[in-house]
Design a protein that fits this description.
Helix 1 packs antiparallel against helix 2. By secondary structure, the protein is mainly α.
Length: 98
Amino acid sequence: MEHEQDPQTELQDYDLTSPAIWLRLLFMILFFLAFKVSVYIVIVLAVIQFVFVLIDSQPNQNILKFNTSLNTYIYQIWQFISFASEDKPFPFKDWPKD
């Protein structure tokens, strides 16, 4: 069974002598670092959100919305790093909507 590509994202062929593959590697490393920072932010916000639930018996909506968009950003990073997408995440495109 052949794997069908997402029509929105066309993967390109890479040649080891092409500067494009090495530039992509650089972006992959930078986005991986952004991923690591983002995960720590999610953890910190989860703890803060837990405190809000303890105090108010409900989650803070602003934190909830930001965490949702941050989770989408993390997903976009993994799509790019794993070659599932050629689209570079933020700051090369808009921040994900919540």
